[in-house]
Amino acid sequence: MNRKARAVWQGTGKDGTGHLTADSGVLSNTPYSFKTRFENEKGTNPEELIAAAHAGCFTMALAFQLQSAGFTPTELATEAVVTLEQEGSGFKISKSALTLNGNVPNIDRAKFEELARAAEKNCPVSKVLNAEITMDFTLA
């Protein structure tokens, strides 16, 4: 399976602008720039997209872990916070912090944590990130 997205950039790194498009159409000429990345201008940035990808991947992986163990979640909600830090003259994504809120009938805290830790380690986005990954959770 292959997924594809395109980036087009015009101008310098600080003053230029770009847009992102994905074949699915979810991103369609979505703006990004220095200001959307390092300030608060409307648009997206690579770290936000990685955070969304990590939250989505982990949550789906956990749903499969739960299903395999015989549990059906009422709801799984995950927030991912990706940290971008300066490294030398450039930058590095140093951390992705996952915060999970789960509502899963008939599961105890220990089993939920076991399955959530397995999902954290085994989702494809976790495997590709060269960063510290943490996971905190609450179980309703």
Structure description:
The chain has 140 residues and is α+β, with helices and mostly antiparallel strands. The chain has 2 domains: 5-38, no CATH class; 46-139, GMP Synthetase, Chain A, domain 3. Helices cover 34% and strands 36% of the residues. The protein contains 4 helices and 6 strands, in the order βββααββααβ. It has helices at 34-38, 46-68, 109-122, 124-128, and strands at 5-10, 17-22, 30-33, 75-87, 90-103, 132-139. The strands form 2 sheets. It has a 3-stranded antiparallel sheet. The protein has a 3-stranded mixed sheet with strand order 4-5-6, with helices on one face. Strand 2 (17-22) and strand 3 (30-33) form a beta hairpin. The N and C termini lie far apart (36 Å). The mean pLDDT is 96. InterPro entries: KH_dom-like_a/b, OsmC/Ohr_fam, OsmC/Ohrsf, OsmC_Ohr_Peroxiredoxin, Peroxiredoxin_OsmC. One of its GO terms (biological process) is response to oxidative stress. It holds the Pfam family OsmC.
Brief rundown of the structure:
By secondary structure, the chain is α+β, with helices and mostly antiparallel strands. It is built from four helices and six strands; from the N terminus they run E-E-E-H-H-E-E-H-H-E.
